[in-house]
Amino acid sequence: MSEGDTTAVSATGGEPPPSGNLLSGPQPNVAGAAGYPDAPPRVGFFTDTSVCIGCKACEVACKEWNAVPEDGLELTGMSYDNTQGLGADTWRHVAFIEQRLPETGREPGGGHEGFDAFEAARNLGTSPSPSPSPSPDGAISPVSPDGRTELRWLMSSDVCKHCTHAGCLDVCPTGALFRTEFGTVVVQADVCNGCGYCVPACPYGVIDQRKEDGRVWKCTLCYDRLGVGMEPACAKSCPTDSIQFGPLEELRARAAARVAQLHAAGVTEARLYGESPQDGVGGDGAFFLLLDEPEVYGLPPDPVVTTRDLPAMWRHAAVAAVSLAALGVASFAGRRR
Amino acid sequence: MSESDVTRGGLRGARPGRDAVTGAQDAGRSRRGRRRRGRGRGEQPMVPEARFSSYYGRPILNKPTWQALDIAGYLFLGGLAGASSLLAAGGQASGRPGLARVAKLGAAGAISGSLGALVHDLGRPARFLNMLRVFKPTSPMSMGSWLLAGYAPLTMAAAAADVTGRARVAGAGATAAAACLGPAVATYTAVLLSDTAVPSWHEGYRELPFVFAGSASSAAAGLALACAPAGQTAPARRMAVLGAGLELGAFQLMKRRMGLVAEPFEQGGPHRLLRAAELLTAGGAALAAYPGTGRRRGRACAVAAGVALLTGSAALRFGVFHAGVASAEDPRYTVVPQRERLRARTG
Questions:
Q1: Do B62 and A200 touch (CB under 8 A)?
Q2: Fewest beta carbons within 10 Å, which of A148, A185, B61, B155?
Q3: In a domain, B4, yes or no
Q4: d(C-alpha B330, C-alpha A151), whole Å
Q5: What's the complex ipTM?
Q6: Which tens digit of pLDDT belongs to each residue from A132-180?
């Protein structure tokens, strides 16, 4: 990857050239690359927000199991979300979005009289190739008693993405952050010295510093539970299986099938987020099915691990250092005054 | 929200119908309103306003937890030390002992101060030695720790040898070695900032090392001008002019290249700091270039130039620091460039 390449790529916003899958790009064997010769399959979360009911059982279960301290009792007034976002003391965050229906092509006030939602839901769960929805103008659009369809609620349980190429892990100067044999990213609290570098390095705004403690904290994907073959507390507690835990390959297959199912049912806005190994972080260990653009949920639309550009940064800094030295020499050159 | 109060006597105050605007749209609207107020006069936006969605206007990134005084102060002191080591070695080699002494003391003092600031900023200062647990090229902070671990003792040895007059050969060796590491100490801090997801730091990664290199030399030149004997400051005056030119030129280039994420440099507190930095650095360099400054009677002039260059360099570091924090706090700078990138990729 030459200097000129990097500049050209960044200027045009195109795909980065392959760089050995060390800092960016697809990495099918993430635990193996981190030095585990016989690693178990990589695990993760598939969060299907189309069935999230916003109950926040995941938030509670996470706090209880991991003994995460209280994170402030504030009422935001912006929505039913008073948790606000991920941080040192919030490892699961249920986003709650109340919005007027965007331009989905659905008729406001469209009739749904002949539509049995329970029947449709039953079909969604069971039939492998669901029949087209009997109501083409939107099977799941919210209907108020007088037939208006002007609002919808989106709920999504956010969590650490356990990136294939994790910025926090790359920049940690102490080795406190490490890659586990399950391909997840965990902080060792007994090593972290609270330098805080991982906080701005995370493209998702996940990890943060606990003020009274000085160290950084984030989701461990329940590393302790994984070790004894248990699923993480949030997935265990989710009453609708919106949070699904399992081997990443299996989750990806399940997610693809679910998207196809929803598209067939007329929910054309369903899309996967963080699932593709081709994305800027090499794919997330925890990915999502969303019903709107990622930024509506507070997720970055095209996150890139910052260390993808690190080789270019070091090169620029080296040239700048040489320039500075040359500037120093030039200052002493010339006639003496 | 609504203008009614719920009391024991029932609902008080009028409710303006049930037409409250819902979350996502509301956030976008208030954001645009705020931005319009902030732009009454002054520079025009470089990029047209772009509509974007966000989660109730909340930031996507977690902003840096670093204290401005510690980390921006560290950037300044690290730069001052690194470029001072160049002046120290040059002063020693060219027979300007007064200049060399000021630069050696300056380098040792500044790097001590910067180490103190770094340790002070840690959440667990007692664990600062954990920085040397691993050697990790993907972490600029790890590389910086190793760099400082090598550089700081050299500057102190050089200063001690100069002041005590003992171990001259070792002192000269330490001075030369410090001059080799100095430029790296002064420029790696740009990588430290750029290697984050903070939009206004990351996008400047090409030019920021040059900005910091220029700022470091103008600071070191400022210290030498203010403190070194008048007859020996010619190299410092030349360094002031060259450094100021590099700093100001690279910064302009950086802002032009960055597009939307250059905005935080042009607004509010960071803008005032950076404007002050520009004026102080340019003024200090002009004073340094003025022929009278080099003479014995131009002492006041030299001190004024030195102070202006030092404060200008410090203001630049604080401005860059705060602009980055501001860019992390506004989802606009995270969402809009990424959307544009996606659009460009999908055609």
A1: yes
A2: A148
A3: no
A4: 26
A5: 0.85
A6: 333 334 334 444 455 555 678 899 999 999 999 999 999 999 999 999 9
